[in-house]
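Support reply, case 0932

Customer input (verbatim):
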Amino acid sequence: MPSKLAVDNVVSKLPGVHSARIVYDESGEMVEIHVLADITKPAKQLVRDIETAIYASTGIKIDRKIVSIAQISLDSNDEDEAVVRPYQKEEVQGYNFQLTSLETRATTRRLDITVVLDYDGKELEGSSIVDVGDDEKYMAIVESTVAAIREVIPSFRIEFIEKLEYGMTEIVMAVGSSLVNGKRKREAGARLCKKDSLNDFALVVLEIINKI
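Our regenerated output:
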């Protein structure tokens, strides 16, 4: 069986792919493939390329459904004009969660984070607490956003989230899932991180849930 690193390298070196993370189960079988790519190719073509590359290099035929792709364009020099285009594998229901506010309150020992969402006129609130010195306080924002969403969709969760470096820019990429018709449906999202903006971590979560 080829090494996990070898498979990661095959996918990462495909034209248009900026980074790839492959999740394996206990038996070593690929169960999730998360890819951040540019928009030079249609997402469906990129999925076929990934399937072909893995089969050609390893002899393993994957199920296309395990591939999640987020596409990002940096055609503009202005980060605010950059575009993120997540791959949609099928029609979505079209939830409409909107970020109303994100509030942080710091004391000498802890940081309280409260996220308020609007869902069709209904106010939803989620909160989380983190040590004030924790460098990964963005996870508390994600937890707060998920907690608010779960008031409406209890099965929703974030399965993967990571900050990536792309040149001088930071990108947050995430994968979330929820039960749809009794089956867990997964979607990916990605956003460019503006300087000192914590909102992006809440917004990438909303991007995902609004596609499920």
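We compared this against your earlier run and they match. Two observations from our side: Residues 97-209 form a domain with the Double Stranded RNA Binding Domain fold (CATH 3.30.160). The longest strand covers residues 169-180. Please reopen the case if you see a mismatch on your end.
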